[in-house]
């Protein structure tokens, strides 16, 4: 194992390092083959949790965030009360209970040879820690699966697949990150609090039963405009936050406007680092912009595509400022307008690019989470003139209108 320090953590504490396993090449090739066959079987037999978006084909953080956002937007349109709980699992891969994992493998009816391979994968493993050129003695691994193996995420997803579906809550999982969205249709704060406590305990009980170590640190956000009632779980008070960060997306009590401002600030900071390459060719500079800066601004496409026009124009103005220096090496380009530069170098304006990306995400959502996509579209069909919440606008009506007109937001 090599130990990689976690960003922003105290390097003097051992728990602030991530152990990455350096595995043998032949073993990694074999694990890749077994993983491909395992995932194919698991998906074909619907053995995964339907709300699990991590390490699954056609799913990712974009779809997970879209599911969370759209669920909140629908609830706000229906004037439901809503609480969001973000859970943090400690050492998810390193502390997985081996007998529990083997028990679940034996109860999913995979072919017998596959049972033996998967159960044998976690048995009798040893490791040694290497720091620079110094390696310590070998020691047995009594729990967990190796970080660095392609099989480990699949086994973790399988281990948590039997988490029961909630009644008054929507769970959205990405590997070991679970976001719970508690909904209640009436105005009673006490009932919403009771639902929140029950749903937190539901997952707590599951984690306790299967020896999944939770840090007992919950981030709790109330989307309701009124002052929320205190939440107490097992005699421990859980305070409410003004904002939570889920898979890199910042959700606040007033929507997601602060997230776009933060992403724009990150893009500007990254752009200053690339000024050292200003002597390179136009194509090289534009390649750096497309691969290192623009992805910062367009993540995640949903819900940024339906953010305020003012924020989108600010991003477009930054793109214009990045485009001009990169193209000033050609005298012909200095005479072109911003819109002509975009057309010449095939760079989409921010507003149309966000629409294109969000359409791709939503099309995948319609396959991976058909129920949510259908609910959103049916709600719009039944009441097309109904008003969305000003901070939580639904994505279905936006996409139905087609791509917007390009807005180049010329710098004043």
TrEMBL record:
InterPro entries, sorted: DNA/RNA_pol_sf, RT_dom
One annotated GO biological process: DNA biosynthetic process
Classification via CDD domains: RT_nLTR_like
Recorded coiled-coil stretches: none
Occurrences of domain Reverse transcriptase (ranges): 1-245
Protein name from the UniProt record: Reverse transcriptase domain-containing protein
Lineage: superkingdom: Eukaryota
SUPFAM superfamilies named among the record's database cross-references: DNA/RNA polymerases
């Amino acid at each position: 194992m090599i130990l990689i320090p976690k960003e922003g953590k105290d390097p003097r504490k051992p728990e602030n390092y991530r152990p990455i396993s350096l595995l043998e090449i032949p073993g990694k090739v074999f694990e890749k083959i077994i993983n491909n066959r395992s995932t194919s079987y698991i998906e074909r037999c619907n053995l995964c949790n339907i709300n699990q978006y991590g390490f699954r084909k056609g799913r990712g953080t974009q779809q997970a965030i879209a599911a969370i956002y759209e669920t909140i937007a629908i609830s706000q349109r229906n004037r439901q009360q809503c609480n969001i709980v973000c859970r943090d699992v400690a050492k998810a891969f390193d502390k997985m209970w081996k007998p529990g994992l083997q028990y679940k493998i034996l109860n999913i009816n995979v072919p017998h040879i596959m049972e033996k391979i998967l159960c044998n994968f976690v048995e009798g493993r040893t490791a040694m820690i290497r720091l620079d050129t110094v390696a310590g003695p070998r020691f047995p691994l009594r729990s967990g699966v190796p970080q660095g193996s392609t099989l480990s995420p699949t086994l973790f997803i399988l281990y948590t697949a039997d988490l029961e579906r909630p009644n008054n809550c929507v769970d959205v999982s990405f590997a070991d990150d679970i976001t719970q969205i508690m909904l209640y249709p009436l105005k009673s704060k006490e009932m919403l609090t009771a639902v929140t406590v029950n749903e937190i305990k539901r997952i707590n009980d599951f984690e306790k039963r299967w020896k999944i170590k939770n840090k007992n640190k919950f981030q709790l956000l109330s989307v309701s405009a009124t002052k929320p009632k205190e939440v107490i779980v097992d005699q421990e008070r859980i305070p409410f936050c003004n904002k939570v960060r889920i898979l890199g997306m910042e959700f606040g009590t007033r929507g997601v406007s602060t997230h776009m401002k933060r992403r724009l600030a990150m893009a500007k900071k990254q752009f200053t680092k690339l000024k050292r390459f200003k002597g390179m060719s136009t194509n090289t500079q534009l390649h750096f912009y497309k691969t290192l800066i623009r992805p910062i601004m367009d993540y995640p496409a949903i819900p940024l595509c339906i953010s305020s026009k003012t924020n989108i124009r600010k991003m477009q103005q930054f793109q214009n400022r990045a485009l001009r220096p990169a193209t000033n090496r050609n005298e012909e380009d200095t005479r072109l307008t911003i819109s002509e530069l975009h057309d010449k170098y095939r760079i989409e304006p921010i507003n149309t690019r966000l629409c294109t990306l969000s359409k791709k995400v939503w099309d995948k959502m319609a396959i991976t989470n058909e129920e949510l996509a259908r609910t959103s579209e049916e709600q719009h069909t039944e009441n097309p003139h109904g008003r969305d919440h000003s901070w939580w606008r639904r994505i279905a009506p936006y996409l139905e209108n087609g791509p917007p007109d390009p807005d180049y937001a010329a710098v004043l």
